[in-house]
Design a protein that fits this description.
Layout: H1 11-33, E1 43-47, E2 53-56, E3 72-75, E4 80-82, H2 91-100, E5 106-110, H3 113-121, H4 130-136, E6 142-143, H5 152-161, E7 168-171, E8 175-180, H6 183-204, H7 214-226
Parallel strand pairs: 6-7
Antiparallel strand pairs: 1-2, 1-5, 2-3, 3-4, 5-8, 7-8
Helix pairs in contact: 1-6, 2-5, 3-6, 4-6, 4-7
Cofactor: Zn(2+)
Catalytic activity: L-ribulose 5-phosphate = D-xylulose 5-phosphate
Protein name: L-ribulose-5-phosphate 4-epimerase
Length: 230
């Protein structure tokens, strides 16, 4: 895919695009660090504030070789605006999420082992521990199977998360997609999704699980989102 010569990054957004390239390069290093990806799988993108643009990982480039200059700028229809590499094969889906969800500033996609195992079973992760209530506000839902390459996955992500507080969705037979107010928030959600997927899987080996009472889930989520931290 080549750059759309009819469009360029506006001068007023140039500094922010360069900052996001640096930021995304650092965030992509977090994916193998937390064992969320293998080889060149997975990707993170960020919306450019105030512009109909996003910055996303190039397709098939090793995490060890990624540099800020490799990050590709696309419009919110998934067309390349600037960059010397082809963007991620999930670009159209990321773009759809940004078009449909103005509140989303970052999207991450991983194939982390435990969460993807739940996705392979087509089974949501039940909210049985406080960490899930804190971060996800309930169960982590499962979206339908969708083929890679177009915007079908993005459409399914948006539809599945509608009515959920969870920033994560398990795409059936595929992997994890997470959203956040920023790219960093989306990556954090992916890290936490894998952590709780592993914990709940281990817990289930010992017997049936009991979901936390909804009123406790609501109280925990409110405290974590509005009181916890600095």
């Amino acid at each position: 895919m080549t750059a759309d010569t009819a469009r360029t990054v506006p001068d007023e957004h140039r500094a922010e695009v360069e900052r996001l390239r640096e930021h995304l390069c650092a965030l992509h290093a977090e994916l193998p660090r937390w064992k969320l990806v293998t080889w060149t799988s997975g990707n993170v993108s960020a919306r450019v504030p105030g512009a109909d643009l996003m910055v996303i990982k190039p397709s098939g480039v090793s995490y060890d070789d990624l540099a800020p200059a490799d990050m590709v700028v696309c419009d919110l229809d998934g067309r390349v605006v600037e960059g010397g590499r082809s963007p991620s094969s999930d670009t159209a889906s990321h773009a759809h999420v940004y078009r449909a969800r103005p509140d989303v500033g970052g999207v991450a996609h991983t194939h982390s082992a435990y969460a993807t195992a739940w996705a392979a079973r087509g089974e949501p992760i039940p909210c049985v521990i406080t960490a899930m209530a804190d971060e996800f506000g309930g169960d982590i839902p499962v979206g339908p199977f969708a083929l890679i390459g177009g915007d079908e996955i993005g459409r399914a992500v948006v539809a599945t998360l509608r009515g959920h507080r969870s920033p994560a969705v398990l795409m059936r037979g595929h992997g994890v997609f997470t959203v956040g107010a920023s790219a960093r928030a989306a990556v954090k959600a992916a890290v936490m999704c894998e952590d709780v997927a592993r914990t709940v899987h281990i817990a289930r080996q010992g017997g049936p699980l009991e979901r936390l009472p909804q009123e406790h889930i609501d109280a925990l989520h409110d405290r974590y989102q509005n009181v916890y931290g600095q």
